[in-house]
Amino acid sequence: MYDWPFTYEQFITAADYVGIAVFAITGVLAAAGRGIDFFGVIVLGMVTALGGGTIRDVTLGAYPLVWVENPLYLEIAVGTSIFAFFWSRYLHSPRRMILVLDAAGLSLFAIIGLQKALSLDAAPIVAITMAVVTGVAGGMIRDLLTDQIPLVLRPDSQFYATCAIFGAAVYLVLEWYVGYANRWVALAAMGAAFTLRILSVWRQVTLPHFTQRQRN
Fold this sequence. Notes:
- By secondary structure, this protein is an all-alpha fold.
- It has helices spanning 8-30, 38-60, 66-69, 72-90, 95-119, 124-145, 161-178, 183-203.
- The chain has one domain (8-203).
- It contains 8 helices and no strands.
- The protein is globular, with a radius of gyration of 17 Å.
């Protein structure tokens, strides 16, 4: 078997860093064409990248907050936002790219949130809830600040929060089957969430919509 040069904890931390960078980029790209100045764009990237994890940690009572304890999280969010600001001014970013980046951030953060909750001995149902919060809350803040209906609530959202739930469920099943969590379990769960999201967008698959029958 291939011997990885880093531990499972290091892998999770690296995935968290990547997720922050990816979501920061989506936050900046969401500001395109909305007349937001440089500072506002950076703030938008930061809250998109750190919002879900912050809500998760506050809910779980995990203090200090992850980006307070490790300022590198904040530095990555700010640095990536600045990079994306100048990059997006000169290069066109197609909607497809934003969807792929958002799907990647969702899948990474969902499993990170699940793993964080499990490390604090949260019950499985709570851990899955934290997976959803970590995966979608930053994007919800991003959409609200740019005067949009949050993607997770739109009728054309396809599978969104559902993908976070699915990825978290895959993680828990594989962890139970293997007997412990490892990087392969996390990678498989992230891949499952990402694949479901991309397929749902590609095939335009949505959950049933709420409709109320009119009385005669």
